[in-house]
Amino acid sequence: MENGSGVLDLKEKKSAKKGRVGAQLALSVFLIFHFAMLVVAPKRDSYLGELVSPVLDPYTQFLEILVPWSFFAPEPGPPPVYVEWEILGDEEKLLSRGQIPEYPSPFWNRERQNKRIVFTRFLMGEEKRIDAVMVPYLCKQYPDAVSIRLWRIGHDVPSLTDVREGRRKIGDGEGIERRVAAHGYCEGKR
Amino acid sequence: MSWARGGLERIWAEWRRFWFESNEPESMRLFRRLFGALMFLFFALRTPDLRQLYSESGVLPVDLMREVLDFGSRQSIFFHARSETAIWVGHAALLASTAAMALGFFPRASALLAYLLHVSFLHRNMTVAYGIDSISVFFFLNLIIADTRRRDSMLGSVSLRLCQLQVCVIYFYSGLEKLKGTHWWYGDAIWRVLANHQLASMDFTWVTAFPLLVVLSTWGTLVWEVYFPALIWLPRWRFPMLLFGVAMHLGIALSMSIPFFGFLMIFAYVTFLTDVELARFSVLIRSFLQHMCKK
Fold first, then answer.
1. Of residues A82, A167, A149, the one with CA closest to residue A117
2. Is the pLDDT of residue A190 over 90?
3. For B186-203, what is the HEC assignment?
4. Boundaries of domain holding B98
5. What is the DSSP letter of B218?
6. If you placed Cys at B120, which of A38, B76, B144, B205 could pair as Cys (CB 3.0 to 4.6 Å)?
7. Residues B88, B183 within the same domain
8. Parallel, antiparallel or unpaired: strands A177-185 and A147-154
9. Contact A165, B211 (CB under 8 A)
10. Which of A8-12, A175-179, B29-33, B95-99 has the lowest mean pLDDT?
């Protein structure tokens, strides 16, 4: 009996080991695929990225793992950007004025300001965005508004040498580029 | 043929050791707790903006967002459940799941729930997402399979390795991308960040008195990021690399008012410590605290 049970144990152990190796092999195949996607995804526009895009795109987009990983790169972040607006009522009467993000930050909770900075960078990314997003939103916020005028503002970052030699100061307001972004009408008020 | 077979067996043994036999339950448990607590705080702080940023009455209704962004295969619970109540329930569940991760309460199920909800919020309004939002997705995903109960857990080991490799991938690409930037080569990239009044947490004019420091920290960051994915695996280099990383991320957190991003990366370094090193480290901290208390 002792002998028989020993043989059974050995068989069980062997089959458990086989099962484990099988699981490891299956997992290895998946890991190679997953890791390849992680490595290729940041370079989605490369030749390899294009080649595997039928698989890469749905997989990485669905899991939300399609990130370019370019923190402060290739240049260390865009300069300060703002979107300014004027809310106009009947006969272009100025109702209110504002900007996003506000400066200096009105929030003790800095995360609120960070989100507004990121949002503003998104708006500045394409011409149509400021008009498409901000006009309907501001019209909702100001029921008396008839139209909204918007500007895109870009600040310059002074060089280290200029600040060191006293020619400029940080946030001195020099080198500001202010361009009209849109003048849109609230729905049904044109 | 036997040499080829022997070679393959060695490769397979190394592969298995790396992926399936390297679980460090204590390190992963600590990482999960720290990560859960950090993300709980991060999500809690966006509560006042929930309506404005994620609801239909906010800045970006779903239909408008589809007009201005290419969505591909991205999905979100909030594309279907658009009411404000759904947003608030989702937010409460996200807070509860990250708190559960921090407390070790159903950690894997909590990580799965947190992952689904986080991605749903992320896709609901991608225009307000930045570094920490993207990086945390990977860690939520990896922590779903983390097994901190057994050292010999295969999935636990895979989870640990994926977390470590994720950190390497992030630095590798960030480093290589920086090599394309003129300011990183010129040596004033750090200054360009500190002099950006929208990002900087204080007036850094005093830094101009130390231009060499700016250049060295710029190049140091560049070299460190590029070499991190290779050197972190060499025992002699591991601690110096991690210490530099802690200093760099603390610097970013303090100078740029983005503490969550910095702390997330620092917490991820815990996955590079073995359980034995972690135990030694906690003894060291305890004796230091006792020493301070006696004083």
1. A82
2. no
3. HCCHHHHHHCCCCCCCCC
4. 25-152
5. H
6. B76
7. no
8. antiparallel
9. no
10. A8-12
Q: How many folded domains does chain B comprise? A: 2
B293 found inside a domain = no
Alpha carbon of B142: minimum distance to chain A alpha carbons (Å): 12
Query: Are B260 and A111 an interchain contact pair (Cβ–Cβ within 8 Å)?
Result: yes
| B286 in any annotated domain | no
How far does chain A reach from its first CA to its final CA, in angstroms? 96
Task: Give CA B103 to chain center in angstroms.
Answer: 19
* pLDDT, tens digit, 9 for 90 and up, residues A99-146: 999 998 999 888 999 999 999 999 998 888 999 999 999 999 999 999
CA-CA-CA-CA torsion sign (B159, A49, B231, B286): negative
Q: Measured between CA atoms, how close is A26 to chain B, in angstroms?
A: 12
In A, which residues are within 8 Å of B60 by CB distance?
133, 137
The ipTM value here is 0.90
Give which of A64, A69, A41 is closest to B123, Cα–Cα: A64
Cβ neighbours, 10 Å, residue A89: 15
Does A80 contact chain B (CB < 8 Å)? yes
Report if residue B35 sits inside a domain.
yes
Residues of B in contact with A77 (CB under 8 A): 192-193, 196, 199
Q: Give the chain B residue nearest A114 (alpha carbons).
A: B258
